[in-house]
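Progress note, sequence design subtask.
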């Protein structure tokens, strides 16, 4: 007699046998009970979770002699013909090999004919995402308004590749991976029916290795059933899958936690000597670290773990020694080794260099936390500098020194002395903060206005309505009256002038300052244009003196207006 593999032999034949898809099953059964079955269904999900099986079961429920029913009998001719794939009214199409427009045209021509013996003519198209764009376009009209005797059931592992126009014409069901515990229960039933003597730990290993695919798990159990007579052990399962024991994975993770690079290398060496598959081993370690990340993030919860049978106390103890960012980096680094290795030798080298690097690194901290710490540090430095460094009021030179127009060197010397005095006060003064700062800023502002009036009249014209209201360790704040937004925009729109102001303020204060321009209600609108201190105008040329004869020239030079 021909042997039938477990995946086919134990394929679910009714809704009651479907494993791990309760929400989908419940919805379909209710639709059958209420006679609300749609004309098109789309079943999506990973491989081996029951997409095509559900489509067949639904087809049997519709065409069963006792139906439509929420549970096919699997005894009538229609049910048995559909189960065996020989029913002429249930047409199964492989989307990968019948993907062209000609095949879809054939379907479109045949849908108008009534079923031969059943209630409905049903088309089951597997891997429907493989159809071409032209084939989808040819199917759209028929899919949207098929004859009442036609149903379409689609199955795909890649729903994102289906056009939205197709998806919108179907009722979609997303099937999930089957949980490891559900897989173990199903495998125990199969093992009992087949008379297999297998350890529970071996069944758990099969369930974990299948990664949520029940069909894969059934195929693995089928392989184990071919082992020599006797009890199927966990060691036999590991030998078949190329996996290592959980204790080996735990040993590597413990070595990484304790920064023991030598111990980590020994673990890799032992895996190689025992004939383990390094790619599978890395996969095991990555999933173990993933479970550690779950525990580190939200505590131990068996339902969220990839392996719900792991030692919860050990996971919690290990998770306390690794931050979430460290675990994520470890997962990324180890995942990269499988992608880089082209053969066993390369794979071993990449794995060894990776575990040495991971064993030698410190715990990572999130970038957000680092930025917050830097911000706090900057605030502390700013407060400390502002508290310990006030600007002393520089002594004003005698007016005569400015009136001596022929002594340019004296003027430069006085300017240098004043800058030195301010810088010395900035570096050495302490304890005069709040009340003193405003006075110091005023002194610095007078010096700046005088300097720019002499050296850069265009800059002075932009500053004349402003006031230096803040002088910190890294920032100087110039405020303009609330009613003078144009003055603020004019200064901000000239980066070169801003740089000149920052440079000059830096020279006289001994700091590296950044300029900030604001509007403030505390700065009154001047009734008369402000300028440099009076003694700065004592000995100027006729053009610079505000005589009546030069008013027009001044207004023209500074693009101003006469207020008073």
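Output:
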């Amino acid at each position: 007699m021909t042997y039938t593999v477990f995946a086919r032999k134990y394929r679910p034949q009714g809704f009651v046998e479907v494993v791990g898809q309760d929400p989908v099953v419940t919805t379909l059964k209710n639709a059958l009970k209420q006679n609300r079955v749609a004309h098109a269904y789309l079943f999506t999900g990973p491989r081996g979770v029951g997409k095509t099986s559900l489509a067949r079961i639904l087809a049997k429920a519709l065409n069963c002699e006792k139906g439509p029913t929420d549970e096919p009998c699997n005894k009538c001719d229609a049910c048995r013909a559909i189960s065996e794939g020989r029913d002429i009214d249930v047409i199964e199409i492989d989307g990968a090999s019948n993907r062209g427009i000609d095949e879809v045209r054939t379907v479109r021509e045949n849908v108008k004919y009534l079923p031969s013996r059943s209630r409905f003519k049903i088309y089951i198209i597997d891997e429907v995402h493989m159809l071409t764009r032209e084939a989808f376009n040819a199917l759209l009209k028929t899919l949207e308004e098929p004859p009442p005797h036609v149903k379409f059931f689609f199955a795909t592992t890649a729903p994102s590749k289906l056009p939205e126009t197709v998806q919108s014409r179907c009722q979609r069901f997303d099937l999930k991976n089957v949980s490891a515990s559900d897989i173990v229960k199903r495998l125990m039933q199969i093992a009992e029916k087949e008379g297999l003597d297998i350890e529970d730990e071996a069944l758990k290993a099969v369930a974990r290795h299948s990664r949520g695919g029940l069909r894969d798990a059934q195929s693995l159990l089928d392989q184990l059933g071919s082992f020599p007579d006797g009890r199927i052990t966990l060691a036999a399962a590991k030998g078949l899958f190329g996996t290592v024991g959980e204790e080996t994975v735990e040993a590597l993770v413990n070595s990484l936690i304790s920064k023991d690079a030598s111990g980590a290398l020994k673990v890799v060496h032992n895996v190689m000597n025992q004939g383990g598959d390094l790619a599978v081993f890395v996969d095991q370690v990555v999933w173990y670290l993933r479970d550690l990340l779950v525990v580190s993030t939200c505590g131990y919860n068996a339902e969220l773990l990839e392996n719900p049978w792991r030692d919860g106390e050990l996971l919690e103890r290990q998770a306390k020694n690794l931050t979430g960012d460290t675990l994520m980096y470890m997962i990324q680094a180890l995942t990269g080794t499988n992608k880089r290795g082209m053969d066993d030798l390369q794979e071993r080298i990449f794995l060894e260099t990776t575990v040495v690097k991971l064993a030698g690194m410190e715990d990572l901290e999130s970038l957000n936390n680092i930025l917050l710490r830097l911000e706090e540090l900057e605030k502390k430095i700013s407060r400390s500098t502002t508290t310990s460094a006030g600007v002393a009021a520089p002594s004003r030179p005698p007016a005569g020194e400015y009136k001596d127009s022929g002594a340019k060197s004296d003027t430069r010397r006085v300017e240098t002395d004043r800058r030195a005095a301010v810088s010395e006060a900035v570096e050495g003064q302490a304890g005069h903060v709040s009340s003193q700062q405003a006075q110091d800023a005023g002194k610095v502002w007078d010096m700046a206005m005088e300097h720019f009036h002499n050296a850069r009249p265009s800059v002075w014209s932009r500053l004349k309505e402003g006031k230096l209201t803040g002088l910190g360790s890294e920032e100087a704040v110039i405020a303009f009256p609330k009613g003078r937004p144009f003055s603020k925009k004019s200064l901000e729109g000239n980066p070169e002038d801003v740089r000149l102001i920052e440079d000059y303020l830096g020279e006289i204060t001994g700091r590296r300052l950044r300029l900030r321009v604001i509007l403030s209600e505390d700065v009154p609108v001047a009734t008369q244009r402000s300028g440099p201190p009076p003694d700065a105008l004592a000995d100027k040329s006729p053009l610079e003196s505000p005589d009546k004869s030069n008013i027009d020239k001044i207004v023209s030079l500074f693009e101003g207006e006469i207020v008073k």
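The domain at 246-360 is CATH 1.20.272.10 (Zinc Finger, Delta Prime; domain 3). Work on this subtask will continue into the next period as scheduled.
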